[in-house]
C-alpha cells in the first residue's frame, strides 16, 4: 500500500503497481525456457480453519510451463490434512479439461507440487492418466527439515548465492536454496538461507530438472520485483487461495482465473 510516509520508497510503489496488475488479471513476466518437458504444474495445499478446527480440502493452483497462473480451485472440507485420492484425480481432470479448452490438446506431462509430505497413494492418482498417455510427476516441497546453506570464506560461514542445488546419489530427493545473495547478505541479519527439500513420489523426470523447475517458479511471484517467495508459486499461491476461501472471498469448487488472492 502506498502511504504518505512511503511515497519515496521505490519498492512500495513498484509492488503496489504489480499488485494492481495482478488484481486486474495481468502477468508482468514469464519464464523464458522452463527446464524439462512439462506442460503445466499443479500446486496442492491444505489449510486448517483456526475457528472450527476443520481443514479446507484440496486447494489447487495451476501454473503453465512459462510461469503463467492458469486457474485455481478450492475443494470441500476434508477430515484432516490429507487429500483424498479421488479429490486429486478430480482436480487433475479439471486441469486436463481446461487445458484442452485453452490449448486445443491435452497436456503430455503434469508436475504436481505438494506442500509438505505426500501421504496419498500416488499409484492410485497416476493410474487413470497413464491410461490416456499423460505423464505425472509428484514431488513433496518441504519447508522444514532441510539444512541451511552457506559458503566458507576466510574461516567464516557466509551467505551464499541463491539457486544452489544438492542432489542425492539415488536421484530421489534434493535440496535447493531459493533465497540468498544478491537479495540479502550478512548486513541484513537474516542468517544463512533455509533450503527447501524436494522429494520425488512419482514420475521419471531427473531430480535436477525438478529442482530447477522449483527454483524458477520461486522467482515467478507477480507481486514483487525485488525478492522471491522462497516457495514455488505453485504451492505459495495454493496456500493464498485456501486462505482466501477460508475467509469467504472465494466460492468453494469454483475455477478461478488469474490471481485475485495475491
From TrEMBL:
Taxonomy, superkingdom: Archaea
Native source species: Halohasta litchfieldiae
One matching Pfam family: Piwi
Piwi domain segment(s): 1-250
Gene3D superfamilies noted in UniProt: Ribonuclease H-like superfamily/Ribonuclease H
SUPFAM superfamilies linked to this entry: Ribonuclease H-like (SSF53098)
Record-given protein name: Piwi domain-containing protein
GO molecular function: nucleic acid binding
Amino acid at each position: 500500500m502506498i502511504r504518505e510516509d512511503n511515497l519515496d520508497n521505490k519498492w512500495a510503489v513498484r509492488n503496489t503497481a504489480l499488485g494492481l496488475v495482478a488484481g486486474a488479471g495481468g502477468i508482468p513476466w514469464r519464464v523464458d525456457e522452463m527446464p524439462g518437458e512439462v506442460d503445466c504444474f499443479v500446486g496442492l495445499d491444505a489449510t486448517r480453519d483456526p475457528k472450527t478446527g476443520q481443514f479446507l480440502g484440496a486447494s489447487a493452483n495451476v501454473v503453465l510451463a512459462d510461469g503463467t497462473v492458469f486457474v485455481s480451485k478450492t475443494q470441500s472440507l476434508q477430515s484432516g490434512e490429507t487429500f483424498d485420492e479421488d479429490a486429486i484425480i478430480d482436480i487433475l481432470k479439471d486441469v486436463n479439461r481446461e487445458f484442452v479448452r485453452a490449448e486445443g490438446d491435452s497436456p503430455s506431462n503434469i508436475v504436481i507440487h505438494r506442500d509438505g509430505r505426500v501421504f496419498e497413494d500416488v499409484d492410485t492418482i497416476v493410474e487413470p492418466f497413464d491410461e490416456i498417455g499423460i505423464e505425472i510427476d509428484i514431488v513433496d516441497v518441504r519447508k522444514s527439515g532441510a539444512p541451511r546453506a552457506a559458503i566458507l570464506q576466510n574461516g567464516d560461514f557466509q551467505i551464499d548465492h541463491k539457486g544452489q542445488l544438492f542432489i542425492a546419489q539415488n536421484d530421489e530427493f534434493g535440496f535447493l536454496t531459493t533465497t540468498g545473495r544478491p537479495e540479502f547478505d550478512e548486513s541484513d541479519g537474516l542468517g544463512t538461507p533455509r533450503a527447501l527439500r524436494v522429494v520425488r513420489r512419482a514420475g521419471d523426470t531427473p531430480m535436477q530438472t525438478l529442482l530447477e523447475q522449483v527454483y524458477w517458479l520461486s522467482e515467478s511471484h507477480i507481486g514483487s520485483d525485488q525478492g522471491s517467495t522462497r516457495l514455488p508459486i505453485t504451492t505459495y499461491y495454493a496456500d493464498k487461495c485456501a486462505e482466501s476461501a477460508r475467509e469467504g472471498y472465494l466460492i468453494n469448487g469454483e475455477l478461478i482465473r488469474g490471481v485475485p488472492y495475491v
